[in-house]
Amino acid sequence: AVGAAAMEEAAAHNGSAGAGPGAPAAARPPATPEGMALAYGSLVLMALLPIFFGALRSVSCAKSKNSSEMPETITSRDAARFPIVASCTLLGLYLFFKIFSQEYINLLLSMYFFVLGILALSHTISPMMNRFFPANFPNKQYQLLFTQGSGESKEEIVNYEFDTKDLVCLALSSVVGVWYLLRKHWIANNLFGLAFSLNGVELLHLNNVSTGCILLGGLFIYDVFWVFGTNVMVTVAKSFEAPIKLVFPQDLLEKGLEADNFAMLGLGDIVIPGHWALLLLPSSLKKNTHTYFYTSFVAYIFGLGLTIFIMHIFKHAQPALLYLVPACIGFPLLVALAKGEVTEMFSYESSAEILPHTPRLTHFPTVSGSPASLADSMQQKLSCPRRRRQQSPSAM
């Protein structure tokens, strides 16, 4: 739920030096125009990377794997429930921070996301790292198997195959994890955030355009209500010590890597539009063109830029989905109207073209766009594009 948090100007990143989340804005000097331009430009670039590469990896993964290993699909019923469950989770987190000590809650969350971040980052860098291993590298195969019951009622809970190369990637990711756990540094936070975002785009799919409209429309209302209607979203986003947002310092030019005046973008504002772009990618490839996919990219950049502009005009945190949703739906729809393909666009089923027999999302993620739900999905399908893993859905 916090993953869909608004972009907030000069938000204090948790764990930064200087002032904590509750420090007054006057404690920091105003950001320079150059610093703000660098920060928001970097956020836009970082947001585009997991959408683009997550979509390409997802399509490549789907073409190379059998039907039993396909990424899970979000149906219309799942999409309609997303905002409701996300709202309950967000309100629950808000109450937890009000009732219990923020220090202890964030300690538990840090340990939780430490483990999930290592797994997500390892899965993200694994295909890239394979190019650096020599041909004679001693690569042994391993299998991690957990079962439940015995005899005919015996059921596999986890059946994960991995090798020595995977262990190397896991060790490298653990270094980043320890760095984040000890320092809460913004670079380590962003490495985990990018990994969560890429895995979220890659491993969860929308089944058709109507489902995408339901999901985006529901989260549009969710984001606007919790940012403008209450202070719940901003309060939780500033209190939540976890890599559930990308951050970039606006005072990087003045303070270097120790900068502490951050602009931020929630992961939900990346993953949700990323699902929409991925849905339009196979639709475009059907006609041997990337028209709708690139149109959604342009729409995303426009929506994010508009968010930043409005935020500086009104000097208030903005729900990014307020601008992203109309842009991401409106731009491709205008293209479809111009090409006379609106009916074809809404009747298109992604699973029928790229993802045949894609399994349905049988367990609804507890948090919309959150690292917890993304990492759970990742753990269920961790093998793409190299690994082969089968397990029954676990309770989220």
What are the SSEs and their pairings?
Blueprint (H helix, E strand, L loop, with lengths): L32 H32 L7 E3 L1 H24 L2 H28 L11 E8 L6 E9 H20 L2 H18 E3 L2 H21 L2 H8 L5 E5 L2 H4 L6 E5 L1 H18 L5 H24 L6 H19 L2 H6 L2 H4 L17 H10 L16
Parallel strand pairs: 1-4
Antiparallel strand pairs: 2-3, 5-6
Helix pairs in contact: 1-5, 1-9, 2-6, 2-7, 3-4, 3-5, 3-14, 4-5, 5-9, 5-14, 6-9, 6-11, 9-10, 9-11, 10-11
Could you please describe the fold and organization of this structure?
With 396 residues, this protein is mostly helical. The chain has a domain at 33-63 and 80-112 and 206-352. Helix content is 60%, strand content 8%. The protein has 14 helices and six strands. Strand 2 (141-148) and strand 3 form a beta hairpin. The longest helix is centred in the N-terminal third of the chain and has 32 residues, at 33-64. The protein is globular, with a radius of gyration of 21 Å. The model is unreliable at 1-26 and 352-396 (pLDDT under 50). The chain crosses the membrane at residues 37-59, 79-97, 104-125, 203-228, 262-281, 293-314, 320-338. This is HM13 protein. InterPro entries: Peptidase_A22B_SPP, Preselin/SPP, Presenilin_C. It is a multi-pass membrane protein.
